[in-house]
Amino acid sequence: MDPAFKRPAQLLLALLLAIGLSGCQAFPGSAGPEPESRPELMGTGDLGLIIERATGSVLVINTSRHEVLGRIAGLGDLSHASVVYSRDARYGYVFGRDGGLTKVDLLTRTIVDRVMQSGNSIGGAISQDGRYVAVSNYQPGGVKVFDSQTLELVADVPATYTSGHGEPGQSKTVGLVDAPGNLFVFSLFDAGEIWTLDMSDTSAEITRFEAGKSPYDALITPDGRYYIAGLFGEDGLSMLDLWNPGQGVTEILPDYGKGEQKLPVYKMPHLEGWAIADGQAFVPAVGHHQVLVANLSNWSLTDRIPVQGQPVFVMASPDNRRIWVSFAHPDNNVVQVIDSQTREIIRTLKPGDAVLHMEFTPRGEEVWVSARDSNRVTVYNTRTLEPVATLSAEKPSGIFFTSRAHELGL
After folding, report:
1. Separation CA 269–CA 328 (nearest Å)
2. Tens digits of residue pLDDT in 155-166
3. Going along 258-365, which residue ranges are E strands?
């Protein structure tokens, strides 16, 4: 080729290569800003929130790294707070005692939105399809349902009832859970009723059931079939079979409840903490230093396990091999671990003063335990029962991992 033609061709090729290289640098991920100026990319599967009850804040934590990623402040009164998660596990919905409902972003560690929806609330739930967030209220009583994207009010359900004297009243609502079919189920403390709220369409249909005297808390079994309310006003519990609601509410465990108590009740147990393991339900006894064991096939009481104090949370590890028990004051500086097969206490742990909550990692290799008055969270290996990490926190209480986004009734 004539050199006169070859040189311009070489220059053109060099120019095209230069343009191509500069164009490649413009694509996301190929070069971009310096690493130190770019936020860390991560999924949400091993993240969670820890409630700091005294400061109105939550810690965003990474369970795999045993690390606090940041703090989100400005969430109001968190003295009795709980959390549910969006389906993608990016957003947490924090229910405060002051009636505040706060949507937080775990990745940006910011408040997305916040509404003051009542004067006093006691927890909430997210619907099966993730579209709705419901809040259970003490003052005024009732349940409010919000759009999970915008926090706009979708349904307002006053818990109205007629008292024994024929006067209208507004009941406190407790034990709010989600159930299959886009149902919310909750109990009316003052009315002695269980209600289901159907959010499968815009009609928000309510069905009422008689439930016994003064239901104070409730749970739903892991398969979403049975809703069980504890009764403070009488012995036993009330159970609603959501597969067969036409059968109404039946009484189970007549030996369980307030009536037999021989001790003052320092703190009512949380029924959400029931352990289901090896075909048995392990139940915190009200006013007794006992964990009760019930046969799931007929709900008969089969055993009573003596423990150190009045149990508050009785929780099974995900493999159901061990039961972890926390206690009310004055025995609330320990956690006892029970073998679910032998039903014997195999270890007494001392995570700190005023143990308030426990949360297992999704596959159960670790459990995180909050100690409010020691200002720390201790992480235990569930096989060796030895501590593997400690995190500082301001008066920590509830611990909520994003794995809850994919579980019923939490």
Report:
1. 8
2. 999 999 987 777
3. 275-277, 280-284, 290-295, 301-306, 311-316, 322-327, 335-339, 345-349, 355-360
- State phi, psi for 156 to the nearest 5 degrees: -120, 115
Whole-prediction pTM value?
0.87
- Coil, strand or helix at 282: strand
Closest CA to 308 of 329, 292, 321, 290: 290
Q: Which tokens sit at 385?
A: 């029962």
| Torsion sign over Cα 128, 133, 138, 139 | negative
Contact 373, 353 (CB under 8 A): yes
The answer to whether 357 and 370 are in contact (CB under 8 A) is yes
Hey, what are 19's tokens?
A: 């343009």
| 244-268: pLDDT as tens digits | 999 999 998 876 655 454 545 545 5
Query: What is the DSSP code string of 219-243?
Result: EE-TTS-EEEEEESSSEEEEEEETT
Distances (CA, A) of 108 to 36, 57, 92, 143, 166: 16, 15, 12, 30, 52
β strands within 150-220, DSSP E: 153-157, 160-162, 168-170, 173-179, 183-188, 193-198, 205-210, 215-220
Asked if residue 169 lies in contact with residue 188, where contact means CB atoms within 8 angstroms, the answer is no
Contact 268, 286 (CB under 8 A): yes
Q: How confident is the model at residue 20 (pLDDT cuts 50, 70, 90)?
A: very low
Tens digits of residue pLDDT in 24-48: 443 333 343 444 445 678 899 999 9
Query: What kind and span of H or E run contains 3?
Result: helix 3-25
Q: Which helix (H) or strand (E) holds 10?
A: helix 3-25
Per-residue model confidence (pLDDT) at position 33: 40
User: Which tokens hold the place of 272?
Assistant: 């959400």
Give the C-alpha separation, 287 to 277, whole Å: 23
Inter-CA distances, 406 with 4, 129, 193, 402, Å: 70, 11, 28, 8
Question: Please, which residues have CB within 8 angstroms of residue 379's CB and are 6 or more apart in sequence?
Answer: 66, 366, 367, 368, 369, 387, 388, 389, 390, 391
In the sheet where 215-220 sits, what is the strand order?
Answer: 215-220, 226-231, 235-241, 249-257
- pLDDT for residue 372: 97
